[in-house]
Amino acid sequence: MSCQDRGLLYGDGLFETLLVVDGAPRRWRQHMQRLKEGCSRLGIGGVEEAKLRADAEALCTNKARAVLKIVITRGAGGRGYRPSAQSDPTRIVQIHPYPEYSSQYWSRGVKVRVCQHRLGANPALAGIKHLNRLEQVLARSEWDEPDVAEGLMLDSGENVVEGTMTNVFVVKNKRLYTPDLTSCGVKGIVRDGVIDIAENLGVSSAETELSLDDVRQADEIFLTNSLIGIWPVMQLERCTYGPGLITQQVAEKLAPWNNGWIS
Amino acid sequence: MSCQDRGLLYGDGLFETLLVVDGAPRRWRQHMQRLKEGCSRLGIGGVEEAKLRADAEALCTNKARAVLKIVITRGAGGRGYRPSAQSDPTRIVQIHPYPEYSSQYWSRGVKVRVCQHRLGANPALAGIKHLNRLEQVLARSEWDEPDVAEGLMLDSGENVVEGTMTNVFVVKNKRLYTPDLTSCGVKGIVRDGVIDIAENLGVSSAETELSLDDVRQADEIFLTNSLIGIWPVMQLERCTYGPGLITQQVAEKLAPWNNGWIS
Questions:
Q1: ipTM of this model?
Q2: What is the pTM of this model?
């Protein structure tokens, strides 16, 4: 890759991380939709989905279970921070091994901590999966304990926003809540899927402000992302949580949705 | 450069932009000091100044006037956002032509606008020159007018923080003020130099909150960075400013300080 690429120089781009199962990336359409939304927000034109799909198909063949990573940058050029008027984006498509997570993360749940690093408010960048990820890097650097799977990140108003690599849901009195992401955070593909599933299950859900205490006092907590689907939270610092009925119902509905190129 | 480099994937790194005059980069020691502070804040170890200096010397030879760019990233490796325990940073040193700025930017001053994009608060990242620069890219994308040299960026509290590529100073009643940068913004090398110069001139200076109206109502406004030194502001949207005495005094003192490898 060029050392003049704006992806390197400014983090001027976007990425997607897709689950690959049985030779095919999952939730392709949804990932492409978020990528396009990100390109539109950053003003990056000229990304060709057909080329991404051809790259993806070639890389995913014969992969039973893997991770497909797509990076789009604004490419080289422009003067300083100012982008060039002509868009010539860089396309990077990589295949990686699926991470070695304990199967108990799904069956029993995970231990979670609370990160010290606070997310800055940035409505113009909220929701999209851009390449400016130092906040997540700093938050993920806060702990070494191998049995702590994730850390919750708060905003400057002390509301919970997300995990370093996951979205967060809580169940309280049989209702589902997830943090509002208009000021910061990444809108996960599975996050959207869970909201749809809840509706189909007749479980009311809301995107709202959630304090750390709201999360601690929840009946159930679970985490989502494209690679893991759903991990129940069994421990948040000193608080413990048993297996949750709604978490289980949502996870069961999510499982078949994982199959095939959904497009 | 590797497509696995964390500089590309997460903006996980730092940069410095140095003025080169008569075959030598200026203010080397100060740039290295900020780079080290940035590495310390991000937990990037193993950067060798001697190698950077050797690269710089080789690139700068025979350059009458140019721009030296240094990029340090955390390198490849680690699992997701989590950095690897072993630090193996990437070192990139580039030489670029000096930008073609009109000489009137120094002699008469520049026109400046106010950007719509607001800077997010991020104390852990404030001050250092890290690679997460989407905010500056978005702000600099807001205008095309070739006669507008810079845009002021405000925080979510509507206080002025900096320009997209410069620091901001104002003079009011013969005192010098510049925005406090504890929540966001980059601490420029020339910004520090100007504060020292003001002290030597007997001009009191303060790092403080400055509203847009404070800036508009100032007697003098000027911008600083390592490449330009000082540009007076002659116009901020509808407000105009004449040549400023303190701006001129500071600029005169800054000029000789530009000479030689200061180390």
A1: 0.95
A2: 0.96
